[in-house]
Write a structure and sequence with these properties.
By secondary structure, the chain is mostly helical. It contains eight helices and six strands, in the order βαβαααααβααβββ. It folds into two domains: 50 residues, no CATH class; 178 residues, no CATH class. α4 crosses α6, α5 runs antiparallel to α8 and α7 packs across α8.
Length: 294
């Protein structure tokens, strides 16, 4: 218990080999003895020679921070270079916009629908997902999971290991998942832009027609098979992942469950695309009356 004088200042610590701490402890013990002996008649208000602030309980220890080595101020060493980089990028964009016209097509004609009607390049990845999933999954559920996962990264990965040095050796899980997702998204964009022709059929860039006719996958698992498989995937996969990350420092129960859900959803999207391309699988589970099909 800390004791302070009327002025509110703490007992001074002197560099005397710890003798001041010993004196402070003895004075505090004496004051506590006086307080116990006084009982209910102990002084209060201005006549009270000391007052209690409370007990301070340690909640943990300071982490061992890695040695940063020689450092320099952020300004101007970093921010000035970033400012120059931004100005250089703006200059390049300005020159490109002056030298090259935008690849605009003919004005829209309500009587003629282009085939295929492709979204802008940054949305073609979502349009390509429509081949493998229902519209509500490809256009709503998957984008929401992506945005939620990116927003949850600071809360799911509190480790400071490899901070500022983003190498695969330092952070194999984080770098691997993010790189795979980023490359996979651009692969979907590339496929939608280059390899999809009329009727969204697969075409090669050097041909003028579809090599493979546009066929829609029709093979779906019966619900009596698909439902147990889907439950086994999430329950069994979740159990294995939770056992794997049990020793992760800094992750609470909610963070672990969230990470497991995002990881299984991410892997499930890739698995569904592979099964669709390899075996023509359309749905694991299908309930046409409710509009829920996965």
């Amino acid at each position: 218990m800390n004791r302070v004088g009327d002025s509110g200042s703490e007992f001074d610590r002197h560099a005397d080999g710890g003798r001041s701490d010993d004196v402070s402890r003895r004075v505090g013990d004496g004051l506590r003895g006086m307080d116990r002996s006084a009982g209910a008649d102990r002084p209060s208000g201005p006549s009270r020679p000391w007052r209690e602030l409370g007990e301070v309980q340690p909640v943990g220890s300071m982490p061992d921070l890695p040695s940063l080595g020689p450092t320099v101020p952020v300004w101007p060493n970093l921010l000035f270079r970033e400012l120059l980089a931004v100005l250089a990028c703006l200059l390049v964009l300005l020159v490109v916009s002056l030298l090259f016209n935008a690849p605009l097509e003919a004005p829209a004609d309500p009587a003629t629908t282009p085939n295929p009607a492709k979204a802008p390049w940054y949305f073609v990845g979502l349009q390509e997902l429509l081949v493998y999933f229902d519209p509500w999954i490809a256009g709503v559920a998957i984008p929401l999971v992506i945005v939620f996962g990116l927003a949850a990264i600071p809360y799911l990965d509190p480790s400071r290991k490899g901070e500022g040095v983003y190498t695969f050796r330092e952070r194999p899980v984080a770098v691997g998942i993010f790189t795979f997702g980023l490359v996979g998204w651009f692969v979907l964009i590339l496929v939608g832009l280059v390899f999809r022709g009329p009727g969204w059929a697969w075409v090669w860039p050097w041909t003028h027609g579809p090599v493979h006719p546009a066929t829609e996958a029709s093979g779906s698992l019966p619900n009596v098979v698909g439902v147990p498989l889907l439950l086994a995937y999430f329950v069994g996969g979740g159990y294995l992942l939770l056992r794997r990350i049990r020793e992760w420092v800094g992750l609470g129960a909610l963070a672990r469950v969230t990470f497991v859900f995002l990881a299984l959803a991410f892997a499930g999207v890739v698995l569904k695309i592979v099964l669709h391309l390899a075996f023509g699988l359309r749905y694991f589970v299908s309930f046409p009356g409710s509009g829920f099909s996965v």
